């Protein structure tokens, strides 16, 4: 109507005497033509939405790009029972790590292992781990009495050492410890009256071990000064220490002694010397790096070609702008939370993994029964922070994590979804896992926790009655759980008489 009026009367409207008519037409356009800002403000995910327009649940399922069989097993089993207003997406990183797994520092991230071994090195060449600069200025600080390290290629520890003149009086012992088993595997004792040592090197004195210690690839240990009197020690993982000897080992953190007075010392007090084991194997590994890179590049291209076909076929994969490795799971989950908030209006979101079976009908019963909570899961409370292995934490400096959910299954309310998104730019994704990251993020919110009545979430792989999920399943086990589930009348575990 407005269009036809303008079409036939535009010349008259331009006349001075018809300015009032122009004003009238503009007002009509303003009131009757939909406005972009108002349309945008009513899109799903905005706080102006009304509860009655919300979908009930959106499920995010973490999955690796190459987990084709796992995704298919979920589509063929419990995802086939999704009721109305329940939706899902598989969460997959848009990029795979460009480095071949054998050329990374760790299988859990994408950091390159930059191996450099000079041609004149032999299996008897000694390497000294004693150039660990702690500070670039002249400020006084607590003494660095040792360091934590991880072995990237097998080495043989032959000497333990201590900084010259660091033993003023009494005795000091340098100890090599296996952090996985918390056992001391070698030690030597120094005193202020000892003049004989087996080696001197750049300000350190060394004593030879009676029995050299072979450390395999992946070994995580520490070397530190252990005084005869008990001291308070603090491990600081925030100090990034550069060490140039071929990346045969990584320095993970510095151990400082808080009970001593501050000193102007730029190096740690304890160290060790070692030789390389299986040097020919290491050189062969270095020579084949380009070949591995070509093979890995071909493999990743094939994976993403197949993945794109899967995206088109099923339209249930959310490709996120990230590198898909384990250490980036906090980033993956936060990107999913942000995407759901912007594109969907839901009462709850559920996060799970592609090796987890979920009893959706029972979850729906619980969601309809209770709504006075912020998050629902199996919560780990008082969980100690790991400083080694797959769950090594390098960012969170407390000794115990705040309560956090089981990564195999947790539900967040719309209130939590909104709270996280209003602070999304300030949330760190550098924590070691997405479950502990969520606990740290929500600590400031004081979110109310829910355990469940109709079912409860499993914290481990064992299957119990009344659990909402079965976790850590192989593809074959997923189909078996589905078969048992149907046979037992929608019970997630095997029938009692089986």
TrEMBL record:
<comment type="similarity">
    <text>Belongs to the glycosyltransferase 31 family.</text>
</comment>
<keyword id="KW-0333">Golgi apparatus</keyword>
<keyword id="KW-0325">Glycoprotein</keyword>
<dbReference type="GO" id="GO:0016758">
    <property type="term" value="F:hexosyltransferase activity"/>
</dbReference>
<dbReference type="GO" id="GO:0008194">
    <property type="term" value="F:UDP-glycosyltransferase activity"/>
</dbReference>
<dbReference type="GO" id="GO:0006493">
    <property type="term" value="P:protein O-linked glycosylation"/>
</dbReference>
<keyword id="KW-1133">Transmembrane helix</keyword>
<protein>
    <recommendedName>
        <fullName>Hexosyltransferase</fullName>
        <ecNumber>2.4.1.-</ecNumber>
    </recommendedName>
</protein>
<comment type="pathway">
    <text>Protein modification; protein glycosylation.</text>
</comment>
<dbReference type="Pfam" id="PF01762">
    <property type="entry name" value="Galactosyl_T"/>
</dbReference>
<keyword id="KW-0735">Signal-anchor</keyword>
<keyword id="KW-0472">Membrane</keyword>
<keyword id="KW-0808">Transferase</keyword>
<keyword id="KW-0328">Glycosyltransferase</keyword>
<dbReference type="InterPro" id="IPR002659">
    <property type="entry name" value="Glyco_trans_31"/>
</dbReference>
<dbReference type="GO" id="GO:0005783">
    <property type="term" value="C:endoplasmic reticulum"/>
</dbReference>
<keyword id="KW-0256">Endoplasmic reticulum</keyword>
<dbReference type="GO" id="GO:0000139">
    <property type="term" value="C:Golgi membrane"/>
</dbReference>
<feature type="transmembrane region" description="Helical">
    <location>
        <begin position="13"/>
        <end position="33"/>
    </location>
</feature>
<keyword id="KW-0812">Transmembrane</keyword>
């Amino acid at each position: 109507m407005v269009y036809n009026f303008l079409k036939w009367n535009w010349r008259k409207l331009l006349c001075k005497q018809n300015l009032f008519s122009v004003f009238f037409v503009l007002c009509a356009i303003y009131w009757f033509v939909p406005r972009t800002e108002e349309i945008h403000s009513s899109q799903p995910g905005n706080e102006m939405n009304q509860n009655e327009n919300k979908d009930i649940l959106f499920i995010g399922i973490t999955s690796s790009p190459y987990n084709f069989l796992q995704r298919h097993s979920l589509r063929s089993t419990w995802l086939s029972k999704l009721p109305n207003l329940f939706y899902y997406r598989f969460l997959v990183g848009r990029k795979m790590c460009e480095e071949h797994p054998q050329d990374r520092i760790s299988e859990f991230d994408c950091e390159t292992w930059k191996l450099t071994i000079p041609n004149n090195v032999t299996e008897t060449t000694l390497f000294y781990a004693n150039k660990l600069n702690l500070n670039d200025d002249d400020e006084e600080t607590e003494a660095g009495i040792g360091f934590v390290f991880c072995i990237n290629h097998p080495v043989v520890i032959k000497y333990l050492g201590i900084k010259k003149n660091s033993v003023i009086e009494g005795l000091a012992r340098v100890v090599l410890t296996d952090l996985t088993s918390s056992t001391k595997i070698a030690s030597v004792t120094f005193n202020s009256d000892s003049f004989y040592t087996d080696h001197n090197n750049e300000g350190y004195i060394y004593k030879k071990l009676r029995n050299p210690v072979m450390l395999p690839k992946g070994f995580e240990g520490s070397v530190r000064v252990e005084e005869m009197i008990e001291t308070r020690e603090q491990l600081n993982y925030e100090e990034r220490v550069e060490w140039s000897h071929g990346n045969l080992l990584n320095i993970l953190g510095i151990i400082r002694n808080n009970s001593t007075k501050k000193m102007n010392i730029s190096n740690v007090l304890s160290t060790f010397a070692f030789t390389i084991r299986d040097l020919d194997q290491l050189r062969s590994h270095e020579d084949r790096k380009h070949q591995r890179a070509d093979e890995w590049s071909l493999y990743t291209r094939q994976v993403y070609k197949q993945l794109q076909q899967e995206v088109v076929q099923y339209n249930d994969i959310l490709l996120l702008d990230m590198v898909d490795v384990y250490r980036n799971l906090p980033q993956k989950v936060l990107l999913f939370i942000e995407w759901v908030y912007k594109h969907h209006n839901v009462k709850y979101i559920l996060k799970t993994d592609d090796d987890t079976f979920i009893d959706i009908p029972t979850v729906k019963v619980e969601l309809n029964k209770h709504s006075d909570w912020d998050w629902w899961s199996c919560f780990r409370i008082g969980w100690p922070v790991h400083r080694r292995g797959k769950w090594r934490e390098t960012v969170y400096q407390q000794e115990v994590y705040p309560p956090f959910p089981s990564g195999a299954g947790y539900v967040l309310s719309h209130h939590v979804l909104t709270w996280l998104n209003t602070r999304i730019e300030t949330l760190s994704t550098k924590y070691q896992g997405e479950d502990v990251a969520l606990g740290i993020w929500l600590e400031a919110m004081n979110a109310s926790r829910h355990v469940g009545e109709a079912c409860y979430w499993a914290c481990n792989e064992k299957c119990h009655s009344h659990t909402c999920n079965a976790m850590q399943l192989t593809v074959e086990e997923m189909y078996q759980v589905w078969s048992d589930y149907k046979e037992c009348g929608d019970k997630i575990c095997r029938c009692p008489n089986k």
